[in-house]
Design a protein that fits this description.
alpha/beta
Length: 200
């Protein structure tokens, strides 16, 4: 593949199970063109290291710092020909952790931060704390907005990996392979992309 052969705004969605080669495929993209790498999965970076690939990496583990991370990604983007997001599920989990551990109500907001975190962690471990409708909305909006912003960066190629899982379709009840994501994005994700790629 040569740079002149790359079409403008080619979007690749790469679905597959664990250890099926999704990250390796992105590593190959990094070897072909200058690639900006965005991930929430620190372990996946071992695959790139094993391939001898050393792209510019933005690791998202704390969603509270996402705005500063986004500004840095935006600033770096013009120097690259491709964007790799590995994987969207790990980035969604970072957003979910932030929403789960945010204070709810005046009583929690008044707690000292260490006490509030301990209380929230205990509730999460005991199964006494669930995302409410508003929090699910915040999660959906934040991840959708971040993905949309990434896909509008000025790069000819954008590739996003997502783990797949077998789930029942909410309307038909038939079992299908869906992206392993929470919320409606699991059904809507393919609409963002011009090509759906499945690893061998």
């Amino acid at each position: 593949m040569k740079l002149k052969d790359i079409q403008r705004d080619k979007r690749l969605l790469i679905l597959g199970g664990s250890k099926t080669g999704k990250t390796r495929l992105l590593g190959t993209l990094c070897q072909v063109v200058p690639t900006l790498y965005v991930t929430g999965d620190k372990e996946g970076l071992d695959t790139l290291e094993a391939m001898g690939v050393d792209p510019e990496i933005f690791l998202i583990q704390d969603w509270r710092d996402i705005w500063n991370t986004w500004l840095a990604i935006q600033k770096a983007a013009p120097s690259f020909k491709a964007l790799a997001v590995d994987d969207l599920g790990s980035i969604q989990r970072a957003a979910k952790r932030k929403i789960e551990t945010s204070g709810r109500g005046a009583a929690e907001e008044r707690m000292p931060p260490a006490e509030r975190l301990t209380t929230i962690q205990r509730q999460l471990m005991q199964g006494d704390r669930r995302l409410q409708m508003q929090q699910w909305g915040e999660l959906a909006i934040s991840v959708d907005a971040f993905l949309e912003a990434l896909l509008h960066l000025p790069m000819p190629v954008k590739a996003v990996t997502v783990l797949e899982e077998l789930r029942s379709h909410p309307r038909t009840g038939d079992e299908h392979l869906f992206p392993n994501l929470d919320g409606s994005i699991r059904y809507d994700l393919a609409a963002y992309f011009s090509l759906l790629g499945l690893p061998l």
